[in-house]
Specification:
Elements: H1 7-136, H2 141-247, E1 260-263, E2 267-273, E3 282-287, E4 290-306, E5 309-324, E6 335-339, E7 342-348, H3 351-356, H4 359-362, E8 395-399
Antiparallel strand pairs: 1-2, 2-7, 3-4, 4-5, 5-8, 6-7
Helix pairs in contact: 1-2
Length: about 400
């Protein structure tokens, strides 16, 4: 006996199918939201990593520069202190030697003055005694003459002996002072040499300590920088592989249409290689003082791989080249023609500007406008430089 499902059973099955479909749609939406959030998080992480790398580089450079400047300042301060102490010691030694020399000269002058005063006093006393004796014994001049002469001679001999004794004593004092001065001078020189030796030893010891501290600081900086660089290399390995894959993709390579411009006496002639199926998408115009060639390419392909399965792709490219015009031209008289795949565009010069143009300006070759390079992260290797024969051209592309 065949069992017929009831209406309630059918409604329950229908409701279950709708619930399952709704859950499936909700799951798909949730998966899309998670995918979008993951992409945004990846872009944010990439930007943060690039900013963190730049910050680490700047901080490392600042720390190394500050440390070198501080060590150099400390070394210079220690040198200046050592030189200043040495100068002070030399100055004190010179002042002490000058003071002792001055004291010796003063003692010598004092002794000489005392001797001269004693000699003058003795001579004055002798003369006074002789004058008094002559006055007092004037009557007995002849009898006393011999006695006085003898006394005078004895007195003169005594005076000579006194002068010799004073001279010898003075010479002994001078010799003793000179010996004391020489001994003191030798002692000061010895002390100065010892002080210089100690100052040099202290300076060399502090210099060696400073150099050792600098070497240790540099080793620590090198180790920190090496660790950070290894982290940077690990973070950018995936970016490098993505960049290499992009470089091998022909979609990112520049198009060369062999565009050239030539100047004649009366006009400018622009030539370029344009395939026949792209002629209607090429334009030549004058913008200010430049001749501009623009064009676009579009391609769509579809392939049936099986029943209900179709594979397709589309691509769109634009290109542009600009050439400077050194003189005014008549844009309304611009003409173009095709000779096979070669585009030939002519634009005549204005007659007034052509007459006023100097011979030097006629020989000037036009310069191309160079397109700006794409911006890549600084830690990635630079892309290869292109050197096309006819200059650089900016391109805009989209891929479907």
């Amino acid at each position: 006996m065949e069992v017929t499902p009831s209406k309630a059973s059918l409604a329950a099955q229908t409701q279950a199918q709708k619930t399952a479909e709704k859950r499936s749609k909700d799951a798909e939406k949730d998966a899309d939201r998670r995918r979008i959030a993951a992409e945004q998080s990846a872009r944010s992480a990439e930007s943060e990593a690039s900013e963190r790398i730049d910050y680490i580089r700047e901080e490392s450079a600042k720390i190394a520069s500050a440390e070198q400047e501080r060590q150099g300042h400390n070394l210079l301060t220690q040198k200046n202190k050592g030189y200043e102490n040495l100068r002070k010691m030399r100055h004190e030694q010179q002042q002490d030697m000058h003071r002792r020399h001055s004291d010796g000269e003063r003692e010598l002058a004092k002794t000489t003055d005392e001797n001269e005063r004693a000699l003058l006093g003795a001579e004055a006393d002798g003369r006074n005694q002789l004058r008094d004796t002559l006055n007092r014994h004037g009557q007995l001049e002849e009898n006393e003459h011999k006695r006085m002469t003898g006394q005078f001679e004895n007195s003169q001999m005594d005076h000579t002996m006194k002068m010799d004794n004073l001279s010898q004593r003075h010479q002994g004092q001078i010799t003793e002072l000179m010996d004391d001065y020489n001994l003191e001078n030798e002692r000061m020189e010895s002390n100065s040499a010892e002080a210089r030796t100690k100052a040099d030893e202290n300076f060399q010891r502090r210099y060696n300590e400073t150099v050792s501290e600098n070497a240790k600081s540099l080793d620590r900086l090198h180790q920190d920088a090496g660790g950070k660089l290894n982290q940077i290399r690990n973070d950018t390995a995936q970016k490098l592989s993505a960049y290499e894959a992009r470089q091998s993709d022909p979609f990112y390579k520049m198009i060369d249409i062999d565009a050239k411009i030539k100047e004649t006496e009366s006009d400018f002639v622009l030539t370029a290689i344009i395939p026949e199926h792209e002629r209607k998408h090429v334009q030549v115009s004058v913008r200010g003082d430049q001749l501009v060639l623009t064009g676009q390419r579009r391609n769509e392909e579809k392939l049936e791989l099986g029943p209900g399965r179709i594979k397709g792709s589309s691509s769109f490219q634009t290109y542009q080249e600009s050439f400077p015009l050194p003189v005014s031209v008549d844009a309304k008289k611009l003409t173009r023609e095709f000779d096979g795949d070669r585009l030939i565009a002519r634009i005549p010069k204005r007659s007034a500007d052509f007459a006023e143009r100097s011979p030097a300006s006629k020989k000037a070759s036009p310069e191309r406008i160079r397109a700006e390079k794409p911006q890549f992260p600084e830690n990635l290797p630079q892309p290869p430089t292109l050197h096309p024969s006819s200059g650089s051209r900016p391109l805009g592309r989209t891929r479907g």
